[in-house]
Inverse folding.
């Protein structure tokens, strides 16, 4: 059973922020040389993509709707 609903927009945002961290970690560790401005398009593009995925997810969930729970005691009215 899930403890919370799956939010793919946050997954995409997290993946791009981890990518930015890996880029900076590789630069700090001396594996490669990265200019300071390279991470800006990575983070900006990731956040824009995450926003698009989040809005698309909300659209799909709203369109699908939630099932209405059925009442077992249909004969009694409050």
């Amino acid at each position: 059973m899930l403890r919370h609903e799956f939010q793919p927009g946050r997954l995409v945002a997290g993946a791009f922020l981890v990518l930015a961290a890996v880029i900076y970690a590789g630069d700090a560790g001396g594996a490669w040389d990265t200019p300071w401005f390279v991470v800006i398009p990575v983070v900006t593009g990731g956040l824009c993509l995450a926003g698009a995925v989040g809005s698309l997810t909300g659209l799909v969930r709203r369109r699908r709707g939630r099932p209405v729970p059925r009442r077992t005691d249909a004969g009694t009215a409050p």
